[in-house]
Specification:
The protein has no helices and 17 strands. It is mainly beta.
C-alpha cells in the first residue's frame, strides 16, 4: 500500500519515538504524492537502521536522530527539512565519508535547522553534505554544530573534511547560516 499526506507525531516529553527497522520514505521523482512528518515541536524521532529518502518528503518541527546511514534516491525532488534538529551518528562510516550524499537531486532545502554529526571511527576526509549534478539547493537560517571528523593520526597530510562538497551543482543558496 501507499500513503499520501501528513503524519503528525506528538509524544511530548516522553523521549524518542524509535524506529528499529530500515525505512524507505518518499516516492520516485515521477510519482505524485507527498509525505510530511511533523513533530509538532514536541517530538524526537530516532532511526536505528538505514533510512532512504525519495521525492516529496518534508520533515517539520521535529528532532531527528539517525544512528545508521542515510541515503537519498537519485533524481529525487522536493526534499525539505524545516525547523529540525538533526543528529547523525551512524554506526558505520558512510560511503566515501559523506553523511548526506545527494546525486542528481532538485529542490533540497534545510531551513531553520541545527545539525550535529560525528563519525563512528577515525576517518580522514569526507563531508557532511555532498551534492553531485544537482540544482536548487537551499541552506537557510541553519547551523552546523559539533561537526566531528575524527582524523586518523598520519605522517602524511590529510584533509579533515568539508561541510559542503558541490560537484557540478547549480542554483545554490546559503543564507543566514553558521558553521
Amino acid at each position: 500500500g501507499s500513503y499520501n499526506g501528513e503524519v503528525l507525531i506528538n509524544n511530548g516529553s516522553a523521549g524518542y519515538v524509535t524506529i528499529n527497522n530500515a525505512v524507505n520514505l518518499g516516492y520516485k521523482a515521477t510519482d505524485f504524492g507527498s509525505i510530511v512528518i511533523d513533530g509538532n515541536n514536541s517530538t524526537s524521532l530516532e532511526f536505528n537502521d538505514h533510512v532512504n529518502i525519495g521525492s516529496n518528503v518534508t520533515f517539520r518541527n521535529i528532532n531527528l536522530r539517525f544512528l545508521n546511514t542515510v541515503t537519498f534516491n537519485s533524481d529525487a525532488v522536493n526534499i525539505h527539512f524545516e525547523n529540525c534538529i538533526i543528529t547523525i551518528t551512524p554506526s558505520v562510516t558512510p560511503t566515501s565519508g559523506v553523511m548526506f550524499n545527494f546525486n542528481s537531486v532538485n529542490k533540497v532545502t534545510f531551513d531553520e535547522c541545527l545539525i550535529y554529526a560525528a563519525y563512528p571511527v577515525l576517518y580522514s576526509g569526507g563531508s557532511l553534505f555532498r551534492f553531485t549534478d544537482s540544482s536548487n539547493i537551499n541552506f537557510l537560517n541553519s547551523s552546523v554544530g559539533n561537526l566531528l571528523f575524527n582524523i586518523a593520526a598520519s605522517p602524511i597530510e590529510y584533509i579533515p573534511g568539508y561541510v559542503f562538497d558541490f560537484i557540478n551543482t547549480s542554483q545554490i543558496t546559503i543564507e543566514n547560516s553558521s558553521f
